[in-house]
Amino acid sequence: AGLRPTAADLSSVDPRRLTAVGEALGPRMREFEDRWGTVAHTLTAFSPVVDGEVLPTAPWQALAAGSARDVELVVGHTRNEYRLFTALGGQLGTITDAQATAALRTFGPGPGPRPGPGSDSGADGERAYRAAFPDASPEELYEWVHSDALFRMPSLRLAEAQIAGGGRAHVYELAWPAPAYGGALGACHGLDVPLLFGTFAADLGLMLFAGVGSSPEAEALSSRFRTAWTAFATTGDPGWPAYDTERRPTQVFDTDSVVTAYPHETSRRLWEHHDFGALPLLG
User: Could you tell me the pTM of the whole model?
Assistant: First the structure.
């Protein structure tokens, strides 16, 4: 308590204490909605800061200006990114329409900073999603808008920014579901990590492969992941076409992996005019 947000002050504290304070803050973040806006409803209070020196501008703007045009980029996401966090919160199968409405109004797309919960100006995002996915359940809408806002669309727009700046980007999606809990987690956040490293019985793999472990199918997919990443690190080519804004070729990793047009075109169109940038901290 009482520390200024400076490197000098933070470095004077035992790192273990900083970790403990950060963990204690997580469950209380929504108490600070008036100061932090939408950030109070995200997964962590911590992120890189655009300070004009170490990080001179937001990554999307920097890439679009060509700052990394000579750096090859692989960027992607999983199909059901946010489902892991719904499960960790004990909410799988329990999301109500009121919760879906709050999420759509908090995280739905708009041309500028998101308005935050309870604001009528968030109704545009809700209407857009409900019109685009008229048959979706409250839980599906809740998952999709969180996945789009926090993971899928920022990733896709990063690739598009790289292309706009004269560089090359390769886009992928992991669609293969985690085998634990009867597949209830879907292709959730973090599943690509144990697949890439083959760590089915360690770290995150312990949870996502719990009670199941490895399988010939998982091993084959893991091998394809490693082959692609090794090839990219060696040659700059992971084995599928570079992304472009006309054909939008995307490598979809699944039991049968294919290259197809970007698989979430409806979401892409919903977000195409949204300005991604630094987190909208209000105070």
Answer: 0.88
